[in-house]
Specification:
Elements lengths: L5 H6 L8 H5 L3 E2 L9 E2 L6 E4 L2 E5 L2 E5 L3 E11 L7 E10 L2 E4 L4 E11 L3 E2 L9 E3 L6 E5 L4 E5 L3 E5 L6 E9 L5 E7 L8 E5 L3 E2 L2 E5 L24 E8 L2 E6 L2 E7 L18 E6 L5 E11 L2
Antiparallel strand pairs: 1-9, 2-5, 3-4, 4-9, 5-8, 6-7, 6-9, 10-24, 11-14, 12-13, 13-24, 14-23, 15-20, 15-24, 16-17, 16-23, 18-19, 20-21, 21-22
């Protein structure tokens, strides 16, 4: 597959994603319309993906691998191809989304979207209240109060939350200049230099092929996973969602799930050496002298 021209590769995917307006409101896709990525079933043969729909032949049960703290689900379903689609909504409180099909029935699902609720602002858009700065480092973080955004430039640097978070839902909007590298670090050891899990922020790709990120790709857990696709285009504003619950970490970029990863290493208080589930800080990274990016709309909802 990798030998195919990049334009053909991109044409192979027609992701089912929330609209731009929905993405700006925090919605993400739980079913991408192409695969069962991010889902698990004890009867996987009972589920198929056909023309952007998830079809289950009962008795069948499928669940997201990600657990959600609190939020709203919206999806469409129908029992037969000749019937109209029905839009349904549901609430999730501390758990996975489960889809079930009764014995003897075949039910289709599509446009399965989730919006986290109970999110709290961790950047007020006016100043660095709630954040610890490191002025001795080259990288500088400044607040553009007119644009309500946090800008990072100049060199290696970091900005750290005063609060700590272990299991959480995090969302932010990001803009990177082309070829710029940054990251969201989380469950960090407070005060240590960018010592945490890193959700990579880098939209560079190889030969224009969005299935081939140049440096792990936005949404990857750096040094642990590689993005399966790079949906964002620099310098356009894009949206990132991170959900960390226990050893499981999932990420979305512009509504598309990028990472579905479980840290199977032995427990260790240092996330560079093993599984860390203990609460830690969140750090923003200024990577190097080429860094030129900004963040806004940073929000979190924590189980802690």
């Amino acid at each position: 597959m990798n030998a195919l021209p990049s334009l053909l590769l991109c044409a192979l995917f027609s992701w089912t994603l929330p609209s731009a307006d929905m993405t700006a409101e925090g919605w993400v896709a739980l079913f991408d319309g192409e695969t069962t990525f991010g889902w698990t079933s004890e009867t996987p043969d009972a589920w198929t993906v056909e023309e952007g729909t998830l079809l289950g032949c009962g008795p069948a049960r499928i669940a997201t691998t990600t657990e959600f703290k609190n939020g709203k689900v919206q999806y469409e379903t129908r029992c037969a191809a000749c019937q109209p689609w029905e839009t349904k909504t549901a609430q999730i409180v501390d758990g996975a989304l489960i889809l079930e099909v009764p014995e003897g029935q075949a039910v289709s699902f599509r446009n399965v979207f989730f919006k986290p609720e109970g999110m709290k602002e961790i950047f007020n858009g006016k100043d660095l209240t709630g954040w610890k700065t490191y002025p001795e480092m080259d990288g500088k973080f400044t607040v553009n109060a007119e644009q309500k955004r946090l800008e990072a430039k100049n060199g290696l640097g970091m900005l750290e939350t005063e609060g700590t978070y272990g299991d959480f839902v995090f969302q932010s909007a990001v803009s990177l200049q082309p070829e710029v590298n940054s990251g969201f670090f989380f469950r960090c050891i407070p005060g240590e230099k960018l010592n945490g899990y890193e959700c990579q922020l880098n939209n560079s790709v190889i030969d224009g092929d969005r299935t081939q990120p140049k440096d792990a790709g936005s949404g990857a857990i750096f040094r642990r996973t590689v993005a399966r696709y790079v949906p964002a285009t620099d310098p356009e504003l894009f949206r990132v969602t991170i959900i960390a619950r226990g050893a499981h970490i999932a990420t979305w970029v512009n509504g598309l799930q990028i990472t579905d990863w479980t840290d199977e290493r032995k427990a260790n208080p240092n996330p560079r050496r093993g599984l860390r589930v203990e609460p830690g800080t969140i750090m923003l990274q200024a990577h190097d002298v080429t860094t030129d990016c900004y963040f806004q709309d940073m929000k979190i909802n924590s189980w802690d």
